[in-house]
Amino acid sequence: MARLRTLKDRRDFVRLKSGRRWVTPAFVLQAAPQPEDIKAGGPRFGFTVSRHAVAHQGPQGRKRGGAVRRNRARRRLKEAVRRVAPVDARPDFDYVVVGRAAALERDFDDLLKDLQKAFAKVHGAERQAKRHRASQRAKGA
User: Fold this and answer.
1) Domains annotated on the chain, with CATH
2) Shortest CA distance to 31 belongs to which of 73, 99, 22, 49?
3) What pLDDT, on a 0 to 100 scale, did the predictor assign at position 66?
């Protein structure tokens, strides 16, 4: 299986915050076109899961979101992306997957379906805008 190209710099994660996004119970997918100076080699992915996102009720009623839970959620999301991205991700886009608590319990097949839908939705707005511009040109012509 091909290795994912990953985002490493904070500036890339910050740039994607203002891009397109789709929210599911298990994750938030953020997407934006790659900068002109980076384009080459296919899509890049960033993954983040905070301790607050996977917090659960621990002993003595304290909320805990330890490294084991964060890493498990991240591994599940990475595997889902490895399976879905070759078909649904665009080569000239960067993506960030922000994990949520449901990433730990959600059925893996549902996680894959959510990811396929999320890719379609973040790219659907672009297709819709192109159609709108084309119809506007047709009306003006």
Assistant:
1) 5-140 (3.30.230.10)
2) 22
3) 82
